[in-house]
Every structure is written in structure tokens, then in C-alpha cells.
């Protein structure tokens, strides 16, 4: 009991922490992949992969809920809204249940199923059925009772042979019996029986594999996995074949006096006399080619959940009108790469495996977020480019964007319109040839602009792996077979260019390659004490900081090249690890971590993404870990970090994970030229706010002093970059009292000054 209380308090603490800190976080989720829908008399509720939204029927107002609000980033598998209790219940594939109180938005994480001593792969939640205040939860192991009033679990029913685990897909109540559609028959038991934990109390009505069961008026129907609908014959106590559909049923439900059956390509709506009143086929929806997943009805309106096109609305009476009511967002949650500018954010969804295999070729297009909202450029408009893995915006012209395709070449977008796909036929780019002369595969990945406006790109698995598209429009290639161990086996990752114009290229087999065209030299940093000291030759991330250090992220840890200028002056380039003290023990920073990205912010801090451990923010020298965000202590939807970028003007840090895009509004702004735009936020600081006060628009190395109204100094610091934080304490000792506090800002030379005020309300 004590352990249960402790777990509950811990979850409650984490949940409250999210609520207090979510002012610093923003979610940019896709709501296109609908997993389940539910309804009340006034609203429809839809669950996407790991987020929710609801639409009020009368006002058309849409409300979204995601990890910023406290949801889990895990994959949702079932959704149910209880009108009686005004609560929405979210079920997950891993067994987690989150109950949302719609009256005030409070959430309760229920982990009892997760904690059950069962294999993790059979804890998926499939369906909720409510009866007399109890939600009967269908799971991949059986049925669990959940009391909607007390928020506590009751009995668990293992109803397989001899009490074995069994997949229960759906339950319904009919004539005093609870019926369960399982992968081993349709089973039933008296709902009033107090001993339903005894498997022998459950009888098998029909053998076989059943995907759904539902009550329509005075009739009971079930459907097996082949799509054959059966009707229950009470006199014979068996299910009789009734109607065969052309494909398997993904969702079956009875609501608003209708029986709704959803297949991949059709939705069948039957009235209480089992007359087909409406059939909706995917080819009737001309605006897209959706794949159906589920559907429900409120009044005359039909709400259709699709696999990639969100929630589509039509009516029972209309056969031609379809409306998409999905909140606008990126095309999907698994964003592979992004780039932020001062005015926009670009994202792509292509990917490759850990060994750079692009053959899960995507067709998701490109997305752009700006002040006007999301613009999704569909695959049909990107000129056939697949596996798009990087985005590079021309720093001199934000309307010119280049998208790297790890299969098709380099896509140029101008003014949001794809204009040309550079490939082996119209540019200096090359297809790999070792498969044969007729196979075309142009693998472009890392790309970066130099100071002269030339675009450098990497071309994997060929001899001339480094290319440049000059500002004049001419292409030039550089052979790399002498520096790479085996060029046709090498795959390039990211690219960075330092202040000397040296290009740093990450590879999966040869460490990191440096090249400077001024002396036409390539140099390699790889494993071995005399050849670079990397922990592994597989390098995934590279960044040049403001101190001209090269930060290198590998599949097994972090290394630093102390000065990028050594490329021009030294023959051998050697990197070092960062040694930190933790619990008075010397340790290597990010030892053996698979590092996916490194980004330097305006204060020279490093944002470091990992393959399975979330994201780290470390100080300029790496000695202090300022933040370590994971799914357990932040709104991150996944610990798999694909990409990171920063809006240098606002300081917003965009984090692309495997399950969604979020941002953190930290202190990552670049330094300003003067203090004319200095400001303080939030202001005033209200009692419910638990974060820090930000003072932004600063010069680099500005001195900031904060005093109370009587002139007593409570805080002093020097800025690195354009923003500093104050935790509203007097030098970290205690929280300052309510009142007005003066902020004195001065440049390093004392010439430029500024005075601001902040009010704190306790």
C-alpha cells in the first residue's frame, strides 16, 4: 500500500511539474493519424498517435491536448469519453491509462496495468465499455475493471483456457451478460456474477478469432477477423452468419441508433433494422485518398478517423460533402530533420536506418511553419524526391530552400514552390554505381552554405563525395577516394563549416573529414590515439562553437577538437573527451551515448540530442549539465532525438523526436548590437509561475545587477549571448519577497546602459 501511495505521489508531482513548466514549452504535433474516436452529445473526441483533440459541435471550437499538457508520448490505442462522469479515458499500447477531467483539465496517470507482472507486449488497451460507473477495459491479456468514480482498479479477468491470457478486442452488454470478442472465441458471463475472476464462469458462444462485438437495440452482433458479421440467436445461444463484408473490419461500434463498421476502404452504416443507410468509400473523398480507421456518429454527422488524413466529417444525408476538421500541424510526428530561421521552421520526414539504409522510402513531402501557420507541401509536388533527410535555408535569402534527398538528389524550393530536383542528369550529383548502371540512387545528405553563398553537399557511396553548387550556378566535385578507406561503402551525415572555411564532414566509417579548398587538402579524424582519438569511427553530429572548438558526436560518445584552426597548421588532429566530476568521481561527459545532434546556442551552450536518452544542455565548456530533458521530467514525447535547431532571434529551441516536435523557450538567443530592445519576461511574475525570469535583448558580456526598490543587491551576473535567467532568489539563498525590482544593464565597456523593472507577486 505504501508503495502504491508513493508511486501515485510521484506521478502527481511529475504531472504538476509539467503544468508549472509548460509556459516554457510549445507543442507542434501532427493530428493526422487517428487511432480512435469517441463522442458526447455536444462534442467529438479524437485520438491521434500521441495527442488528442475535440470539436464542439455547436461552436466548432477545437481543443488540442498533447504532452505539453501532460499526456504521455507513448502510442495511443483506445479512447472513450464518459458523459456521465465528464471524463475522457485514454488507453495506450504499453498499458498506461490517462484519465482527463474535462471540467478542469486535470489528468491522472494510472499505471496499474503497466505494473502488472505480465509480458510487456500483451498490455495493450483495445477498448473501453462503461456500465454502472465501471469501465471494462479490454486488453491483450484479458479484461480489467476500472471504477470511474474512485479512479481505482477492480478485478482482472483472465478468460482464456484454464485462465490463460487472451486478447480481448471489445466487450458489450446484452440482456444482462457481458460479451467479449477475443482471439479465441466470443465469450460471455453474467454481469451480476461476483466471481467473474473465475475463468470457468465464462462460456464460449462462438469459436474463432473475433475483432468486435456490439449491441444494437434488441440485437447483438459480432464480426470475425475476416469481416463476416454474425447475429446472435438467443434461442439457440449461438451466433449465426449474417453478412459478409469484402475485407476485415478495423472498428465496430453501435452509437446513436446505428451500427458502424469501418474497413480500410469503406464505412458501412446500418440502422436499427440493419438496413444499410450509408456506405462511404475512400474514392468518394476527392480531396485526398484516405485510409479509414474508425468512425462515429453524433446526430446526423459522421466523423471518420483516417490513418494519415486526420478527421473527416460528412453527414448521413449528404453523399458528396466532406470536410476535414483536423487541427493544422506537420504532416506526421516522426520528423527526421528541421531547420529554423528567424521567421519560419522547415521540417522533413524522410529517414534512413542506423546503417544509412534509405529503403523505407517515404512519401510525406515537406512542411513549413510560420506566422500564418503550417504549410504542408505534399509528396505529389516535390518532383519525386524521396527520403528527404536535411533542409538547408539560404542565409542570404530565406525564400530559397534546399532539401537533401538520400535517394533522389537535391530539391530546390523557391517561394514555397518546388522548382527543380538536382540529380545525376542535370547537375554534378552522382548516382551510386556498384549495384549496376541502370540503378539510380543519388544519396545527398549534409549540406551547408559558406560565406560566399556556395552550397556544399555530401554525396554518399561514390568516389567524388563532396560537391559544391557555387553561387554562379556551377557545380564542382572533389574526389575523396584517397582519404576514405572505401568510398563506395561510405555514407555521409551532417556537415559544418568553420570561420576559416574548412568543411567538416561526418561519416559512418571514417570518422570526421576536414577539407579546405584554399590548400585543397583533406584530413581525417578517426579512432586511435595517433589518428584522432575518437571512440568510434561512426560520427553522427558536428558543430563549431563561438570559441572555434569543434564538437563531435559519435555513436559512442563525445569528443572536442580544441581549435578548428589546427586544420591549417597541424598535420595530425587529435580530439579529447570532456572529463567532469560527478559524485566526486571523474567521468567522461556523455560516455558511450549515441549522439544524434549538437547545436550551439547564442550563449555558446551546447544542446546535445541522443538516440535514446533525451536531450542535454551543457555549459560552454561542458562542465555543467544545465538541463537533461527526458520523457519522465519534461513534455518530450520521446527520448529518441532526431534533430535540433534554434531560432536565434527568439531563442526557441526546436526538438524533433521520433514521436513529435516540441520546443523549449530557453535562453538561447544571440547577442544584440545594442540594448534598445532589452526586455523582461514574464512581467509581472505571478504567484502560480514557477519558472525563471528572463532578461533578453542583451549585449554579449553585459553586466546585469538586480536590486530591490531600496537598492539592496539581490543578483548579479554577466551575459553570454542575448538572454540571462534569474531564479528570483537572492543569490540562490531564498526567494525574494513581493515587490518591484530594478534591473541595471550595462555593456562591458560601460558606455551603453539600460534600466528595467520587474514586479514579483508572491
Q: Percent helix among the residues? A: under 10%
The first-to-last residue Cα distance is: 37 Å
- In terms of DSSP E residues, the strand content is 35-45%
Q: Which structural category do the helix and sheet elements fall into?
A: mainly beta
Radius of gyration (CA) equals 29 Å
- The gross shape turns out to be globular
Main beta-sheet annotation: 4 strands, antiparallel
As laid out across the biggest beta sheet, the strand order is 1-57-56-55
How many E strands? 64
Explained architecture:
Strand 4 (52-56) and strand 5 form a beta hairpin. The protein contains three helices and 64 strands. The relative contact order is 0.07. The model is unreliable at 1-21 (pLDDT under 50). The strands form 17 sheets. It has a four-stranded antiparallel β-sheet, with no helix packed on it. A four-stranded antiparallel β-sheet has the order 2-3-4-5, with no helix packed on it. With 762 residues, the protein is mainly beta.
SSE arrangement:
Elements: H1 2-21, E1 25-28, E2 36-39, E3 43-47, E4 52-56, E5 62-65, E6 76-82, E7 87-92, E8 97-101, E9 107-110, H2 112-115, E10 125-131, E11 134-139, E12 143-147, E13 152-157, E14 168-174, E15 177-182, E16 185-190, E17 203-206, E18 210-216, E19 219-224, E20 228-233, E21 238-244, E22 251-255, E23 258-262, E24 266-270, E25 276-281, E26 292-298, E27 301-306, E28 311-315, E29 323-324, E30 337-340, E31 345-348, E32 366-370, E33 373-377, E34 388-393, E35 400-405, E36 409-414, E37 417-422, E38 444-449, E39 455-459, E40 466-469, E41 475-478, E42 492-497, E43 503-507, E44 512-516, E45 521-525, E46 539-544, E47 550-554, E48 557-561, H3 566-569, E49 579-582, E50 585-588, E51 595-600, E52 606-610, E53 615-618, E54 625-629, E55 641-646, E56 652-657, E57 660-665, E58 679-681, E59 693-696, E60 703-708, E61 713-718, E62 723-726, E63 739-746, E64 753-760
Antiparallel strand pairs: 1-57, 2-3, 3-4, 4-5, 6-7, 7-8, 8-9, 10-11, 11-12, 12-13, 14-15, 15-16, 16-17, 18-19, 19-20, 20-21, 22-23, 23-24, 24-25, 26-27, 27-28, 28-29, 30-31, 31-32, 32-33, 34-35, 35-36, 36-37, 38-39, 39-40, 40-41, 42-43, 43-44, 44-45, 46-47, 47-48, 49-50, 51-52, 52-53, 53-54, ...
